[in-house]
Amino acid sequence: MTEEASILDCPLVQHSPIHAASCTRSVGCLPKRVPVLPILSALAARRLLKSSFRGLFRSAHGFFSPIVGGRPSEQALNARDWQGGRTRGVVVVGHGTADPVGAGETRRIAELVAHALPDVAVELGFLEVIGPSIGEALQRLAQRGCTEAVAAPLLLFSAGHARRDVPEAVRDGAAKAGLAVWQSDALGCHPDILALTKRRRHEALASLTPMPAENTVLLMIGRGSSDPTAHRQLHDFALATCGEPSNSPAQSRIELGFVAAARPTLAEAIANAARGSGPENSESDGPRRAGDARIVRRVVVQPHLLFRGHVEEQVTAAVDRGRREHPEIEWVQVQRLGADPLVARALVDRAAAVECLPAVASA
Questions:
Q1: The domain at 31-188+341-352 falls in which architecture?
Q2: Positions of CATH 3.40.50.1400 in the chain
Q3: DSSP 180
Q4: Hey, is 302 helix, strand or coil?
Q5: What angle do CA 65, 70, 76 make, to 5 degrees?
Q6: Using an 8 Å Cβ cutoff, are 146 and 116 in contact?
Q7: Is 202 an active-site residue?
Q8: Running DSSP on this structure, what letter comes out for residue 330?
Q9: Which residues have C-beta within 8 Å of that of residue 287, sequence separation ≥ 6?
Q10: Cα→Cα distances 275→208, 235, 294, 297, Å
Q11: I want to staple 28 with a disulfide (CB 3.0 to 4.6 A). Which of 106, 188, 281, 357 is the partner?
Q12: This model's pTM is above 0.85
């Protein structure tokens, strides 16, 4: 492993040896028994995207059977129904932000999803702050002739919004619009999200002088949630972006932090990341060499966020404080994921992988 590649692969030493294979549905990472579309040629991908909703919805296994009166509809298992007058649309569910750039990035993802699924009605609905609302988006699908829909949340992890707020909003909107609605999983550890995260990290480090892994800390920052699995979800995701653990003694350290509702807080995370950066001569430890593993030279702060907004501003402010309090450390902030086509592709995969019974349905 080269020094330059070390932080990109970043095998870890101070956390339990969990890697991508440990991500499970329960913590919002790679779902169990849910197929993830493989990497395809451009032509094959285009054909698959065009047929994904029509073809998968015709599955004889009934993966998409809606709830009617509390039980799966037998008619939904008939493949001819999916080829007839019944149609299923998609609601891209955005969190919502007053930041015009962040709102624009969300709309761009919805446009990319619509472009990827030209034969499917796609609408955008926001959970809060701005419109159109989720209910309004479902009404638009009904007006476009849809009788069913998949709500695909632009959420990184499965926490309060994915488990409570979005289903409630979808349930209310579905009842008013007269639609049966399914909700797909959060993006979690989808391979495209992992790849984009690593790419953003590489972009931030590409122009910098290579730094030994033992002198580098990766600080992953999440939005935060009161959900008890929030820490584990971010932990698993961070490890999944770092590759397999290594037996090499030269390994990067990883730290976690949250903007709200979970710990470590931003301030605590900055302090944890800077731990060991002290002076090169210490009475207790003796002289320290420039490459000593106890000296932190660089902290790579990666906010795990989709779009621009107030949360990213808080992270930037915390990093600026870190620079002032620990000027001996090089602080590198990685860009958010943004309106990248990989986000849209991951969202389509999640929607296409809906299985069994829907999370919510019209009354």
A1: 3-Layer(aba) Sandwich (3.40)
A2: 31-188+341-352
A3: E
A4: strand
A5: 20
A6: no
A7: no
A8: E
A9: 280, 281
A10: 22, 19, 9, 11
A11: 188
A12: no
Rounded Cα distance between 125 and 136, Å, is 7
Helix/strand number for the chain, H first, E second = 12, 12
179 closest CA partner among 125, 110, 117, 128: 125
The separation between the first and the last C-alpha atoms of the chain, rounded to the nearest angstrom, is: 57
* pLDDT tens digits along 80-115: 232 223 478 999 999 989 999 999 999 999 999 999
User: Do residues 285 and 203 lie in contact, with contact meaning Cβ atoms separated by under 8 Å?
Assistant: no
HEC assignment per residue over 74-124? HHHHCHHHHHCCCCEEEEEEECCCCCHHHHHHHHHHHHHHHHHCCCCCEEE
* pLDDT tens column, 53-69: 433 333 222 222 232 22
- Per the CB < 8 A criterion, the answer to whether 179 and 121 are in contact is no
DSSP 8-state assignment for residue 216: E
Token pair in block for residue 191: 């391979």
On the question of a cis peptide bond just before residue 132, with omega within 30 degrees of 0, the verdict is: yes
Q: Is 83 in contact with 144 (CB distance < 8 Å)? A: no
Instruction: Indicate the pairing of strand 216-222 with strand 298-303.
Output: parallel
